[in-house]
Amino acid sequence: MVLRAFGLVETRPKSGAIVADGHAEAVRRLLSFHRGLVSAEGFRDVQGFRRIVETGVGEHIIMHASDADLAALDAVNDRILGLREPDDLVRADYEFHDALVELGGNRTVLATYRMLRPVIEDIMRIGKSVRTVKTDVHATHAELVDSLRQRDRIAYTYLVSRQMNYGLRHLSQQSGSEPERT
């Protein structure tokens, strides 16, 4: 696991995988390795981290988010519809996911997620450079918010996982290899 190799995650008995002490330096090493060079392995690693974070905060959001919190997520998502350029779409996509993680209420998780922003945006750029996916991204985000609004943990977890795997098919098309499922 690349996250463990870079010191971002440690495996501990009875605790499983946890964020390592000194994770800021580990994230910097990870960023220097991945920046601009998204391999299938790097994609799976970062998206796996995002899957853990975003499904984890989903539980907190389901338990604690107000209607106003979810309306604010809708508003962040709606910004996507007015955009034309892929780079603007990537930034807005990231901002939606950042707002989602922020609703999780854990400052350490949010800070770690934000340190990965350049790598996450590189990954988000993969599918958006192939074709304009503005309405698809908006619809996918709307499904996520709706599952939170319905307090549907299973749907939310499924939708996060589906979205985390989305760009892998585009990455494999660019490299000419078959995608591996995570």
TrEMBL record:
SUPFAM superfamilies: GntR ligand-binding domain-like (SSF48008). InterPro entries: GntR_C, TF_FadR/GntR_C. Keywords: DNA-binding, Transcription, Transcription regulation. Pfam families: FCD. The keyword Transcription applies. Residues 45-166 form the GntR C-terminal domain. GO terms for molecular function: DNA binding. Gene3D superfamilies: GntR ligand-binding domain-like (1.20.120.530). It comes from the Bacteria. This is GntR C-terminal domain-containing protein.
